[in-house]
Amino acid sequence: AINISQPSFSGTDVFGYTSFLAYSTIPNITFYYEFRLKFQLANHHSALQDNLIFFTGQKGQGLNGDDFLELGLRNGKVVYSYNLGSGIATIISKPLDLTLNIHVIHLGRYLRKGWLKVDDQKNKTVTSPGRLVGLNVFSQFYLGGYREYTPELLPKGSGFKNGFQGCIFGIQVRTSMNQEFKSPGSPEGHPNSGRSVGQCKDSPCNLIKCRNGGKCIERGSSVYCDCLTGWKGAFCTETVSVCEPEHDPPHLCKQGSTCVPLPNGYTCHCPLGRTGTYCEQG
Fold first, then answer.
1. How far apart are the C-alpha atoms of 205 and 108, rounded to whole Å?
2. Is 222 found in the same domain as 251?
3. Fewest CB atoms within 10 Å of the CB: 3, 75, 164, 268?
């Protein structure tokens, strides 16, 4: 069990899955909202990719004019987009100062007009095209990534290709200027579901111990032991038999014969018609 107060996201894994948290749909977001959050990048390289920070949408996809709200990183800049149904409005920040350890984002929208403030950069504004003024979203609020696992099914609004890599601190939202900021979710701060989310600065590797020289490898909240030659198993506690294919060096029994381990070494049981130490003779 990992107590998560500051979620850590691992981006998109080798199978195409993103780590994410999914919160209940944010109510009363139609005409006004403000978000604020802090984040810490896993590394400088992660700032240069297309990384989704959060997303919510009408049908969940951001396709074909669907209403959506989206925040992400591209080429070292923060990208904030929304569509009220009559065209996409986008604000792109100046490049992030990568010498800063933690970045701060404050963004909002009232009717068609949106604004974005990143770190100590100047406030930027945009007005969405068309005449529609309301944001209608019904999907859950996705933080750090998205539930779908093929790139074609990631939200299309701004074309982010990966989940976020790093930590997100204290995301909060309000849907009226007279309200206090609150964490998303129902009850407050509680996600409905998630995948491969860890606790920032607290590796799950601290909770397990690989034996016999094995090394713990972390992937989000997933961990495994990378074992030294001759060892296997979840914690590298099982020896690799001389007859197993991963043994180094491999046994020499020819194809069709059976390798049988002995207290010292092994022997080869030959099929009908074969003979020799390794069943190599007809």
1. 38
2. no
3. 3
Q: Are residues 274 and 152 in the same domain?
A: no
Residues 127 and 264 in one domain: no
Whether pTM > 0.85 for this model: the answer is no
Q: Are strands 141-143 and 231-232 parallel, antiparallel or unpaired?
A: unpaired
How would you write the pLDDT of the chain (282 residues) with one tens digit per residue? 667 888 999 887 767 778 899 999 999 999 999 999 999 998 777 767 789 999 988 765 545 568 889 999 999 999 999 999 888 999 999 999 989 999 999 999 999 999 999 999 999 999 999 999 999 988 899 999 887 654 444 555 557 888 899 999 999 999 999 999 999 999 999 999 998 888 888 777 877 889 999 999 876 556 789 898 888 888 999 988 899 888 888 999 998 899 999 988 999 999 999 999 999 999
- What amino acid is encoded at 44 in this protein? H
CB count in 10 Å sphere of residue 169: 15
Beta strands in 46-185 (DSSP E): 51-57, 68-74, 77-83, 88-92, 103-110, 113-118, 124-127, 141-143, 162-163, 165-174
Query: Residue 221 belongs to a domain with what CATH number?
Result: 2.10.25.10
Domain count, the chain: 3
φ, ψ of residue 221 to 5 degrees: the values are -100, 5
